[in-house]
Write the structure tokens for this entry.
Amino acid sequence: MEKAKKLFTISSVIMLLFSFGNISGYYDQPQVAGSQQTTSKTTETKTTTQQTGSKSAQTKTTTKQTSSKSTQTKTTSAKTSSKSTQAKPKSDQKSSKPEEDKSKDVGTVKIGTQIWEAANLNVNTFRNGDTIPEAKTNKEWIKAGESGKPAWCYYNNDPSIGQIYGKLYNWYAVNDPRGLAPNGWKLPVDADWAKLANNLGGSGVAGLKMKSSSRWNEGNNGTNDSGFTGFPEGYRHENGAFVNIGSIGIWWSSTEYNPPSAVDFYLSMSSSFSRSSSPKQRGESVRCLKN
């Protein structure tokens, strides 16, 4: 009986050990499988990370493209700047247009050794930029003369006449210390006009060569061989009246004759070029001579 009990006990232990081994093996297998799945998930995570890295690389590429676009924008900006630079000469051309109150630049004419302007003076400012007063009414003209003040006007106060004949000035404008002639030019003295006449053969015949070939009354035009183009612009009397357009052209000299008058030279219906003197209040043409 005791041997039987021992055998039963040994058999029971063996069976328990065998059962425990199976149970242990049963639980080990799922744990291994679970470990493999975890590893697989880890691998997938790495793959996802790699994909994320790829997306990051793509983002960098996009950034480079954006940088390229920025460069293109700079190029466009440079082109715009170039266009702006090209537009500047237009602005400069506009600033170079002559003032409306100045006659067209018809150039100069050389007579002997003298260089004259080929048109009468037509400015309303002195050389320093100060304005010369315009006297339209007879009252304004007389007042300026009596007070010894400079003044100018158009014949009959008509600017369209002034575009051809220039302005008429009293002698106080001619003699003003601020300078009536533009830079590089002067107002001729008595001797300058006399020299002009001598260069054209003397005062008796110079007039025909100085007179314009049109606009003189009764067909008394000149040949204008000298190029002086002396128009019959008339003058303004000291009382304000406009007289003798079409029959007389008269120009101031800067030489005083006596306190109330100054020397002037004129063309008339004849062929001569004559010297005279007139009241300083009178309005006459001005022709400039090169310094």
Q: What stands out?
A: Residues 190 and 253 are 6 Å apart (CA to CA). DSSP finds six helices and eleven strands in the chain. Residues 41-97 form one domain.
